[in-house]
Amino acid sequence: NQEILLVSRPKGLPHEDNFSILDTSIPTIKEGEVLVRSLYVSVDPYMRGRMSDKKSYVPPYALHEVIIGGVVGEVIETKADHLNVGDVVVGYLGWRKYNAVEANQVTKIDPTLAPISTALGVLGMPGLTAYFGLLDIGQPKQGETVVISGAAGAVGMIVGQIAKIKGCRVVGIAGSDTKVDYLIKELGFDVAINYKTTENMKKALAEACPNGIDVYFDNVGGDISDAVLSLINKGARIPLCGQISLYNLEKADIGPRAQTALLINSALMKGFIVGDYSQRFNEGLLQLSQWVKEGKIKYAENIVEGFENIPKAFLGLFKGENLGKQLVKVAEW
Ligand code: NDP
């Protein structure tokens, strides 16, 4: 067996030296547990927060302990009544090749409905984040303009497509021409803007949004959000989902403050954590699977191969290496 530990807390941008791979033995399972062989491991931006020891909505990872995150795996041994060998499950497990885990800590997935990797993406946590953040907080209405930052990522690309289903004008912001092309040509975004090559974001956004901005789904914060918020309409709604442009800053970021824009436009900005909606996950998954089945929602995955490449794949999130959901394929199924 192998596992990946956090051995030092990143300062600024995380580095491969913050992690270490340890050889261990395959655990033996107790009554009520299953042994899960990892197939796909998810790397997610929120993990950066858990690598610091600042207060957040989840406790920090402990130093010299295995990192926990989303994993899809196969049950290869069972001492639990309701899980059989061969079942495919998803859960928050260690960055390990093999995890011994209580059966009620994982959820069985049906591999005949969709590729198993989607349980970590469009039909998992990121998809649900897009669904509830946009529909519950953003409340997009037919004909309105929805702007999404981090638009070519796991969450962002689902947000944009749901907004299209709801009949909105959809404008995405992303960090490469390939991503921008994908959003427009493959996913039907009305406009997409490469923030890395656009000198004046406010001007580009104003051109892209002739009727102003009614919903801003914020994945990144910082300068991009300042530009968007300067163009919001009266009664705008702003689901505050993520702030990835700030996660690696050593000092608090100071910029134009959004409060005035919110005040003069009677706008609503609301932070949320997908877990706030856990009672409604089934509803969200049912609707998302329906849309995927009907071809109304497409998804992309960026798959890196090899257990030892998990840290590298994680670091890639901060360089924008991924189009869609970043996953690591650890073993063949
Ligand atoms: P993504 O798949 O979007 O991956 C991260 C992307 O962020 C990169 O591909 C990169 O794309 C972009 N990025 C990286 N650094 C910067 C930067 N400095 N400025 C602007 N963009 C940057 O990740 P997810 O879809 O999983 O997550 C998106 C956001 O949603 C994150 O902020 C995450 O923390 C948040 N989130 C919140 C949840 C909640 O419950 N509230 C749940 C899940 C995610 P590019 O090439 O465009 O720069």
From TrEMBL:
GO terms for molecular function: oxidoreductase activity, acting on the CH-CH group of donors, NAD or NADP as acceptor. Residues 15-328 form the Enoyl reductase (ER) domain. Pfam families: ADH_N_2, ADH_zinc_N. Keywords: Oxidoreductase. PANTHER family: PROSTAGLANDIN REDUCTASE (PTHR43205), PROSTAGLANDIN REDUCTASE 1 (PTHR43205:SF7). This is NADP-dependent oxidoreductase. It comes from Thermoflavimicrobium daqui.
